[in-house]
Design goal:
- Chain B: This is ABC transporter ATP-binding protein.
- Chain B: Pfam families: ABC_tran, TOBE_2.
- The complex is a heterodimer of chains A (about 270) and B (about 325).
- Chain A has twelve helices and no strands.
- By secondary structure, chain A is an all-alpha fold.
- Chain A has a single domain (about 60-270), classed as MetI-like (MetI-like fold).
- The longest helix of chain A has about 35 residues, at about 235-270.
- Chain B starts with a strand and ends with a strand.
- Chain B has nine helices and 18 strands.
- Chain B has helices at about 45-50, 95-105, 110-120, 135-150, 165-185, 195-200, 220-225, 230-235, 245-250, and strands at about 5-15, 15-25, 30-35, 60-65, 65, 80, 155-160, 185-190, 205-210, 210-215, 240, 255-260, 265, 275-285, 285-295, 295-305, 315-320, 325-330.
- In chain B, β14 (about 275-285) and β15 (about 285-295) form a beta hairpin.
- The model of chain B has no long low-confidence stretch (mean pLDDT about 90).
- In chain B, the strands form four sheets. A six-stranded mixed β-sheet of chain B has the order 6-7-8-3-9-10, sandwiched between helices. Chain B has a five-stranded antiparallel β-sheet with strand order 13-17-14-15-16, with no helix packed on it.
- The chains are: A mainly alpha (about 270), B alpha+beta (about 325).
- The interface of A and B includes residues 171, 179 and 269 of A.
């Protein structure tokens, strides 16, 4: 049975896999190509000519910088909030037993299982009801709801693999709660938190639906792109920004993937 | 003399479960003390009460005369060797051992020197640079021991420390632990469910059942004079005799225990004695152990090699000296 794996797959499956990958990734390549087109009003195929002028044009547009700045700030602060809340929640759920523990686990994961539009509507009506004006902070709160889930999931998995007696051993050897957190817990869950944080950042960075419901006049980068597509003015600028966004979110996600994979080996070596 | 550890009517209840129930206990300084019992008997909870991971629901605990209730684990001069060793996977062996000194603020050079000494003590010199994942089970155990001893605890707690080791390693570690304890003079409190281990290593043994102590005493006391039916059943290979049987042969209506080597076997079935039938024979080398059926009561007797051994199914008479029959209570 095992040798089947090393044999090469039938031609049909190879073709199917290639078609599947092409279906997934060709549209993304198209975005890259259009970033270099000389035609700025509509997406014409093939591009009549190639140019790099849109990079300069993008650089010069203050609205791009404003949207980018807002997105980075929102993502950074939501991730920070998520790191604190997600870690604490994961610690509580995995280290202690209490009534309703499983229910809490489910409730924390729910925001990411629900369609974003539900989260968005729910938050919007909650903010209106509480008469909170829509602002930078309402966007951050909206994003934090799903960022917490990502951090929580990563942290809880690592906590489960970290033996509870490590904490007892640390206390037994004279370390108080803070020292135990710093010298034992943090080094053991560090990579999981980094991975969770990166995923949370990437999620927040390209979020559209919840943002539409929780933003006031502010435009995050994805919202800005959506608006740009409606107005046919310097369209390739949008593509340049899209390229940057793809790279900016892909790299952290790849890094997170490698960090958690390596973390598995580290945690596995402990037992 | 102030006891190393004293329990006074100490209880630890988890809801309706009485894990430890009104236990009185005194452990002497410098003693190698074993807590023996089946799983769920409360021995590990007692250890955790001493370590400070559990707080008593009632009663008091003192360690070298100081009240320990409400004192967190990190303020007790007590260290633990955990059942799963609980070595920190992200630190190397030297930093694992030096951890206790590190959190106390001892300088890097000094704590590494002390850790190296502790590693020598457990015969792992030069292993400091390795990660715990690169060590064998026996080596991890020694590291766990060094990590506890480097803090010079007044009491060292060991939670089934040999449980995960194979038989040969267990035996050499038993020997080594015993010597280490003698050399250091530290009070060792040791939890095990293995009666052989408890009897061979400890100065005194406490036998636990259902959150209570059934008997405390030297290994010979526990083995030869079990205080109750439970102790005789759990600790020894002794025959436990019900009151009916004891009344018939010894006149008193109490539980009794009789060691297998104290039963004599006679082929001639006339005369006094307990009539029995041989069920099976187990050759042990120095002796042969017989399983006997005496009117529904299962008994064991050993016959030294060289003596005539009755065949399976043979009818025999059993005799024993009245004063070798040890009388005991049903409950402690």
């Amino acid at each position: 049975m095992r040798s089947d794996r090393s044999q090469s797959a039938p031609l049909g499956i190879k073709i199917a896999a290639a078609v599947g990958l092409a279906f997934l990734h060709l549209p993304i390549l198209l975005i890259f190509v259009y970033a270099f087109t000389t035609e700025e009003k509509s997406y014409q195929w093939p591009p009549p000519g190639l140019t790099t002028q849109w990079f300069a044009a993008t650089w010069a547009r203050p609205d791009v910088w404003q949207a980018l700045g807002l997105s980075v700030q929102v993502a950074a602060i939501s991730t920070a909030i998520a790191l604190v809340l997600g870690t604490l929640c994961a610690a509580a759920v995995s280290q202690t037993r209490f009534f309703g523990r499983e229910a809490i686990s489910l409730l924390v994961i729910l925001p990411i299982a629900l369609p974003g539009i539900i989260t968005g509507i729910a938050l919007r009506s909650a903010f209106s009801l509480a008469e909170i004006p829509f602002s930078f902070w309402t966007i951050v709160l909206g994003h934090a709801t799903f960022c917490v889930v990502v951090v929580y999931n990563n942290a809880v998995a690592r906590f489960r693999r970290t033996s509870g007696s490590l904490i007892e051993a640390s206390m037994d050897l004279g370390a108080d709660g803070f020292q135990t957190f710093r010298h034992v817990i943090l080094p053991n869950i560090g990579t999981a938190l980094l991975a969770g944080g990166m995923l949370a950042f990437a999620l927040s960075f390209d979020e559209v639906i919840v943002t539409t419901f929780t933003a006031g006049q502010q435009q995050t980068l994805p919202i800005w792109m959506l608006e740009e597509l409606v107005r046919p003015r310097q369209r390739p600028v949008t593509n340049v920004v899209a390229m940057v966004v793809v790279l900016a979110t892909l790299l952290p996600i790849l890094a997170a993937y490698y960090l958690t994979r390596e973390g598995d080996q580290i945690a596995g070596a402990g037992k | 003399m102030t006891p190393a550890v004293a329990f006074q009517k100490t209880s630890r209840h988890f809801g309706a479960v009485r894990a430890v129930d009104a236990v009185d206990l005194e452990i002497k300084p410098g003693e190698f003390f074993a807590m023996l019992g089946p799983s769920g008997s409360g021995k590990t909870t007692c250890l955790r009460l001493i370590a400070g991971f559990e707080q008593p629901t009632a009663g008091s605990i003192s360690i070298f005369g100081e009240r320990a209730e409400g004192v967190p684990p990190y303020r007790r001069n007590v260290n633990t060797v955990f059942q799963d060793y609980a070595l920190f996977p992200h630190l190397n062996v030297l930093d694992n051992v030096a951890y206790g000194l590190m959190v106390k603020g001892v300088s890097r050079d000094e704590r590494h020197r002390a850790a190296e000494d502790a590693l020598k003590l457990v015969q792992l010199p030069g292993y400091g640079g390795r990660k715990p994942g690169q060590l064998s089970g026996g080596q991890r155990q020694r590291v766990a021991l060094a990590r506890a001893l480097v803090n010079k605890p007044k009491v060292l707690l060991l939670d089934e420390p040999l449980g995960a080791l194979d038989l040969k390693l267990r035996e050499s570690m038993q020997e080594e632990l015993k010597q280490l304890q003698k050399a250091l003079g530290i009070t060792f409190v040791f939890v095990t469910h293995d009666q052989g281990e408890a009897l061979s290593m400890a100065d005194r043994v406490a036998v636990f059942n259902d959150g209570r102590i059934m008997q405390v005493g030297a290994p010979e006391d526990i083995y030869q004079r079990p205080a109750s039916r439970f102790v005789a059943d759990f600790v020894g290979s002794s025959n436990v005799l019900p009151p009916d049987f004891v009344q018939r042969y010894a006149g008193e209506r109490r539980w009794g225990s009789l060691r297998p080597e104290q039963i004599r076997i006679r082929r001639d079935t006339s005369g006094d004695g307990v009539a029995a039938r041989v069920v099976s024979r187990h050759y042990l080398g120095a002796a042969t152990k017989l399983s006997l059926d005496a009117d529904g009561l299962r008994l064991h007797a050993t016959v030294p090699s060289g003596a005539a051994i009755p065949e399976d199914g043979a009818h025999v008479m059993l005799t024993f000296n009245r004063d070798q029959l040890h009388l005991m209570e049903e409950q402690a």
